[in-house]
Write a structure and sequence with these properties.
- This protein has a single domain, classed as Rossmann fold (3-Layer(aba) Sandwich).
- It has 5 helices and 6 strands.
- Strands 1-6-5-4-3-2 form a 6-stranded mixed β-sheet.
- Helix 1 links the parallel strand 2 and strand 3.
- The longest helix has 11 residues.
- The protein is globular, with a radius of gyration of 15 Å.
Length: 141
């Protein structure tokens, strides 16, 4: 895994993330890792004390992490939300729309290409946590 890419201005969270089960069994962790298939909703009662939630993408075709991110952001989580694992350049703009603001890919991602990916699509088709207005709403009010 390469160094994390952060799109946040706050202080970097240094504490290693613990597993969801470990987090639920202790009271002092402030960073948690959600593996594919784990229920992000179990964290909802604790969002006010968590600084980092890392969501694993074991394979590029596994989209469960997008749903977990959306659930967490819609529930008010404002801390760092990091996508880790098989994170590809083609996915980063979509991950960003679901609320990810940090990335820890298995392979390096060119920062310039990443910025280009964020600007690639002027319009979007779906509403997400990024509050961009979907194209259908532009067309039909």
């Amino acid at each position: 895994m390469v160094e994390a890419i952060r799109l946040r201005d706050d202080e970097v969270h240094e504490e290693p993330a613990v597993s969801l089960d470990s987090f639920l069994d202790q009271s002092n962790a402030t960073a948690v890792r959600i593996e594919a298939g784990e229920d992000a909703r179990l964290l909802l009662p604790y969002l006010d004390r968590v600084s980092l939630i890392e969501i694993d993408f074991p394979a590029f075709g596994d989209g469960r992490g997008y749903s977990a991110a959306q659930i967490l952001r819609e529930s008010g989580y404002a801390g760092e939300l990091r996508a880790s694992g098989d994170v590809l350049l083609d996915q980063i703009s979509h991950m960003r729309r679901c609320g990810f603001d940090a990335f820890a890919p298995n392979s390096p991602i060119n920062p310039q290409r990443m910025e280009e990916a964020f600007k690639r699509f002027e319009h979007v088709y779906q509403a997400t946590s990024d509050q961009r207005v979907p194209i259908w709403r532009h067309r039909h009010g």
